Amino acid sequence: MLESLRGLGYATPTALADLIDNSIAANARDVAVHLEWAGPESWVRIVDDGDGMDDAALEAGMRLGARDPRAERAATDLGRFGLGLKTASFSQACRLTVASRKKGGAVVCLRWDLDLIDQEPGAEWPLFEGPAPGSEHLFEPLDQMAHGTVVLWEKLDRIVTDGFAATDMIELADRVEAHLAMTFHRLLDGQLPMLRLALNGRGVKPWDPYLIGHPGKALESPEYRILHTTGVTVQCHVLPHRDMLKPVEQEVAAGPGGWTQQEGFYVYRNKRLLLAGGWLGLGDGGKPWLRDEAHRLARIRLDIPNSADAEWKINVLKSTASPPVRLRSQLHRLAKETRDTARRVFAHRGHVTPASGARPNAVAEAWQVRRSAQGTSYRIALDHDLVASILDRAGPLKPDIRALLRLIEETVPVQRIWLDTAEDRETPRTGFTGAAENEVMETLSSMFEALVKFRGLSPTEARERLGRTPPFDRHLDLVAALEAKDAQ
User: Fold this and answer.
1) Domains of the chain by range and CATH?
2) What confidence tens digit (pLDDT) does each residue in 444-457 have?
3) E strand or H helix at 153, and its extent?
4) Neighbours of 158 (CB within 10 A)
5) What is the pLDDT of residues 201-233, one digit of tens each?
6) Confidence class of residue 74 from pLDDT cuts 50, 70 and 90?
7) Which residues make Cβ contacts (< 8 Å) with residue 125, sequence separation at least 6?
8) Among 209, 366, 390, 453, whose Cα sits 20 to 30 Å from the Cα of 324?
């Protein structure tokens, strides 16, 4: 059974997060994680200043399934199955030693060693007292503490495998830090955080998935309470487009898994992150939404109480969740609105048009999108002010110009654009991004002339309309310069 439990699927970062859950449940304020490279003798240790355990509590805690998952838990309890300490530890190491002290009590210590099961005479399940010989010094931090717990992993057979070297341990520490910064970010945040967490002597800084308060965000909703349930709240966020972020902000905001993997719902229980990203099986027309580039800026915070674990199908690894059927319609509506906003921000590189897709009193868009049973097509709008003006003045060239426009429509490199977007993880640069002012002014002047001479607008009306029209709304100084040109 123990060998089977070792294969539950824990990665080292998720296993350590499970142990930190126990520390938080024991009211710890300071938790220190240490990964020590020493070849085959490498070890991992977690020290916390929580309430600690006496002999009876430690013995119960070292038993598998010591607590009934159906039993009511304290509101702050992050556990459920009574398996986390053992399964998380055995998934990484053969030897698990736990030493603990309650306030005013003596240090108690018990040890599991999977290599010794069935080898100790007269004991099928040998649970040893005290550290393994030679490991006593690793528990010295507890001697200086009034209360707390030390968890030690040795014989790291699932971590230190063939070919594993010191550089791999450094990379592992980086992955652990990123995961802990994400998983416990709400507990680590603030001037007086609920938790202080250190890895190899360095404080772990929280990672904020939502860029709270950033001026470039398109959406930071109020906190919504979900009806027909208790204690479930949602807050919707659409992050700024990459063009609105500094290079350092771009890297940080991407998160441990990268932009696309981090989109979707973030499910928390007692401010501890259970699930980072994904759409919880929600979708349209019977097809679940997939994580894709167009919606990568959408992130939705979802809080559930720990009394709802069974209803939300929280698993032992705390890595999956499924919303109850009666709540799915509410979550779907909020998610769809967030996804729609994120898609517009992504498509317009952060310059969002109203939800209707058009700005009042603006020039019509140059491209028309047509959807039918045969598929989606993209056509140049022949009634666009500049296009219509050129066609009106084209004379005998009009058929050739219309043929040219049709050729452009039929040869838009859709597949290439799609591939480049997927590979570069960014939309192609449009809207005169990076163009010289004289290039923008050429097109802008032609548009201005078409509005005044072809449409019959006054110069003032033409400038107002251009100032409301993408992409010229990003070049208002050039639009204003048209006024000087007209005055001359």
Assistant:
1) 2-203 (3.30.565.10), 219-347 (no CATH), 367-487 (no CATH)
2) 899 888 888 888 88
3) strand 148-154
4) 18
5) 999 999 999 999 898 898 999 999 999 899 999
6) low
7) 117
8) 209
